[in-house]
Every structure is written in structure tokens, then in C-alpha cells.
Specification:
Blueprint: E1 2-8, H1 13-25, E2 27-34, H2 44-54, E3 58-61, H3 68-73, H4 75-96, E4 99-105, H5 128-140, E5 145-149, E6 152-153, H6 160-168, E7 174-177, E8 181-182, E9 185-186, H7 187-199, E10 204-207, E11 214-215, H8 216-226, E12 234-237, H9 259-264, H10 272-286
Parallel strand pairs: 1-2, 1-3, 3-4, 4-5, 5-10, 6-9, 7-12
Antiparallel strand pairs: 8-11
Length: 287
């Protein structure tokens, strides 16, 4: 199968993994990984011109304004990128007949649940980031693939696992909250599943995270232990002890149940401990 793929946000931690994953799964005629300096997704003309020129068969729209506190500072920009930018990409995808995948987030929920959110639970975002990403979902409706994910970590870019390892190499205790719960998702696993679902031509919402639930506190302890550090250095704190300059509310519980993957037989991702453990060992060997 010869296909052409376009990845927006191509230099991000997910975008880089997607390019590798597509190249491994199919005979890709061309993978175009474009970042913000190459395609301005806030410009309808730019998006239309580039996608019209490249004529991709599949578009994975991973570009987004993800700095949640910055979204609170500039809501208009958040909507311009996350919502309207998605409209332009979707519109252009329709014009060239491309399949599209939109990457969404656990922040579309308010985090007040006591059990994992399924694809059919009603969203209720409480931050500008969450609201703008939900608006992006609305733009593509049921006509594209939507993959919701959470707590993404990986080999590229900056993420929480890399932060924990950096802090572990320094002196002193590490403080992490023990009252925010979610499912860490390794970008490599996420990319592999997005490629699979895209090649299968699926549409609709799929929750795609590594399985299992943890807190940031337990995640930090696991990373330290896996890296050969003393996990007792990690101290638990509550969310109300975090710096007050954090403007965007964080969901206290944002576990996503991969119900659509299970019921459709598409296969779930490995347990987070398996994948995060592999990631930690890779990062240590790389350094």
C-alpha cells in the first residue's frame, strides 16, 4: 500500500513518533511532518494551500496549544489554534479526500468522576484548554477519527518522566501530588494505535491511553525505582500545596476507559508500568 501522510505538530513528541510508526507499518510514499513554522494552522489559506499541494491520504492533526496556563491567559489564541485551526485542517482534508485523525485530551472532562470516563460520557471541561480542545472535536464531528489521550510522555520533547529523572539526579526530596489520578500514555504506544486506527479507516471517538491508573506521586516513585534511585525520596503533597500561579484547573481524576477499543476488538495499549518502565530504561541508556 502506497500512501502519503501529513502530520501536523510534526516536531512534537507525538509527531516524531507518528512519523516513525507510519514508516514501519506501511509503504509510505511520503510522510510530511509539518510544525508551526511550516504550516500556520490559524490561517485557512495556508492550510488549504499546503494540504491541496501535498494531497495526503491521511492527516493526523496533532498540532495544538497545549500549555494549559497559557490558554487561560489568551483564550482567543487557544480557540484560534485548537478549534478554528482544526476547522481549517478538517475542511482541507475533505477537499482532498483525506482521512483525518484529531488528537484530543482528557481535559474535556471536569475530573469529578469516580470511575473511568468512556467515549460516551458527556464532556464538561473546566479550563480554556479543555474547552478549546472539545471545540476542536465538535469541528470534526463524527466524520473523522478522534483519539483522546492523557499524561503523554515519551522519548522526545519535554515531559513528566524526563522531569522526574532530571530531579532525581539532583539532591533532596521530590514532591508530587497524590490526589490527581490518570493514566500515563507513552507516545510510542499512542502513535502505533493512531496509525492502526487510521489505516483501518475508523471514525468516531476512541480513548487511547496505556491501561491502569496511578497518581503523579506513584508515577514518580515508579520512575525513581526503575531508574535505580531511592523511591522514598518522593514525598506526597496535595494539590492545594502547588504554586498559586497555576491558573488552569487540573482534573483530579481523568482516567479514560478504552471501551471503544475493547468493544470493537481494536486492542488496548499495554499497562502503563510496562511501557513507562521501557521508556525509563531507554532514556537512561541514551544518556
Amino acid at each position: 500500500m502506497m500512501i502519503s501522510v501529513l502530520i501536523t505538530g510534526g516536531k512534537g513528541q507525538l509527531g516524531l513518533e507518528l512519523a516513525e510508526a507510519f514508516s514501519k507499518r506501511v509503504v509510505v510514499e511520503k510522510v510530511h511532518s509539518l510544525d508551526v513554522d511550516e504550516m500556520d494552522i490559524t490561517s485557512r489559506e495556508s492550510v488549504s494551500e499546503i494540504i491541496g499541494y501535498l494531497q495526503p491520504d491521511i492527516i493526523v492533526h496533532a498540532a495544538a496549544m497545549t500549555q494549559v496556563d497559557s490558554c487561560e491567559d489568551d483564550p482567543n489564541l487557544a480557540y484560534q489554534i485548537n478549534a478554528l485551526g482544526t476547522r481549517w485542517v478538517y475542511e482541507a482534508s475533505r477537499s482532498v479526500g483525506a482521512k483525518m485523525c484529531y488528537v484530543s485530551t482528557d481535559y474535556i472532562f471536569d475530573g469529578k468522576a469516580s470511575k473511568p470516563y468512556t467515549e460516551w460520557d458527556v464532556p464538561n471541561p473546566v479550563s480554556v484548554y479543555g474547552k478549546s480542545k472539545l471545540a476542536g472535536e465538535t469541528e470534526v464531528g463524527n466524520h473523522a477519527l478522534i483519539t483522546r489521550t492523557s499524561w503523554v510522555v515519551g522519548r522526545y520533547g519535554q515531559n513528566m518522566v524526563k522531569t522526574i529523572l532530571r530531579l532525581a539526579s539532583q539532591e533532596g526530596d521530590l514532591k508530587f501530588v497524590d490526589d490527581q489520578f490518570g493514566s500515563p500514555t507513552v507516545a510510542h504506544d499512542l502513535a502505533e494505535k493512531i496509525v492502526q486506527l487510521s489505516l483501518e479507516g475508523r471514525i468516531g471517538v476512541y480513548n487511547v491511553t496505556n491501561t491502569g491508573t496511578t497518581s503523579w506521586y506513584e508515577l514518580a516513585k515508579f520512575v525513581l525505582e526503575t531508574a535505580g534511585h531511592d523511591p522514598s525520596r518522593v514525598k506526597a503533597i496535595s494539590s492545594d500545596m502547588l504554586p498559586k500561579e497555576r491558573k488552569a484547573p487540573r482534573p483530579s481524576y481523568s482516567v479514560l476507559a478504552p471501551l471503544a477499543l475493547e468493544l470493537s476488538g481494536a486492542g488496548c495499549l499495554p499497562h502503563w508500568k510496562e511501557s513507562v518502565g521501557d521508556l525509563v530504561r531507554y532514556l537512561i541508556e541514551k544518556d
